[in-house]
Amino acid sequence: MTTAELIxxxxxxxxxxxxxxxxxxxxxxxxxxxxxxxxxxxxxxxRPGPNRVGPFGLIQALADGVKLALKEDLIPAAADxxxxxxxxxxxxxxxxxxxxxxPITGEVSLFGKTTAMQLTDLPVGVLYxxxxxxxxxxxxxxxxxxxxxxxxxxxxxxxxxxxxxYEVAMGLxxxxxxxxxxxxSTSDIVAAQSTWWYGVVLFPSFAIYAISMVGETxxxxxxxxxxxxxxxxxxxxxxxxxxxxxFFLAEYVNIIAVSALATTLFLGGYHAPPGLGFTExxxxxxxxxxxxxxxxxxxxxxxxxxxxxLPRLRYDQFMQFGWKILIPVSILWILxxxxxxxxxxxxAPRIVVIxxxxxxxxxxxxxxxxxxxxxxxxxxSLEVEVSEPSFAVPTVPMNVSNINVSQSSKxxxxx
Length: 415
What we know:
This protein starts with a helix and ends with a strand. The strands form 2 sheets. It has a two-stranded antiparallel sheet. A two-stranded antiparallel ribbon has the order 3-4. The protein is globular and about 95 Å long. It contains 14 helices and 4 strands. Helix content is 63%, strand content 3%. It has 415 residues and is mainly α.
């Protein structure tokens, strides 16, 4: 039976149990992610990180969550109270909904029934994830607008512009995957990577998606919606207590969600790395979930690595990078992939396919060299020669130590 047939045969009780397991997995992984990030960044900055609450500080994130929940809940007088309360709820709920179409394991046995750890298998599952991510930004925008304060409003506007810019590049990077897999279903895309992972075959798409998902989640060096040096705290400046904790939860669940989607689309999903396929039958098929989580954790480590290494970009640099580099490169790559796929399906000789690919590479290199030369010429033309001024300029003594200054008893200064 296919994955879609297994999921269609699930009873209501099985679906409820799987949904509960996915929710628990997301919450527990969020707590561990907070602890892991603080420990990793601490090591990068030559300090221990959390090490007091529980063994190795493992309960620190749970203690912080309880502390936030018990703090006083403040609502600004100028805030739109209904929208102010709804905004963190929107952000926290939409990030969990993405996991409905993510295949976490292959075929497993759950309470005596054969199924797969995937809640539903939509024919357009990837589009569903992108749609949910687009709705999730409403929580940030509404939080900034409803606070009735300047800095949160600026943070919300930045986030909306940021998400629009980088969701375009993210969506375009997935088109190549759809062309090669011939489907938008997440389970079909995973099955199509049984021989080669798309992270290797479609590496430019993988690189564009990896950059876009960092911008999508407002993480450093793209955390311009929360830039504390410019906007105090960004869109959540006026939030406290449990509402702030919901935004905190949404950020880390979003990181896990985009990492899970990247694993599904580019790294073979729950499949083992090449040469280790025999492990997929271990533990009754549940070992495939361990491979899936391992790949997600690799992406999470990259998120933490970027935060501890790179400084924040300027806003104009960030927007130019998205609109002038990522989106044009994505469109060009789609044209190349579509042509190569058509040549391959129509049985063109391999030498033709390789020749076309080589021509595209040379064309891109030539265009890059041309842009660099044009940039150098533009910088040279902007250089202005400094000329001597036409008016008299008093000379400045080079050695001020030779100047003797004495003050007379009459109050006059003599040099």
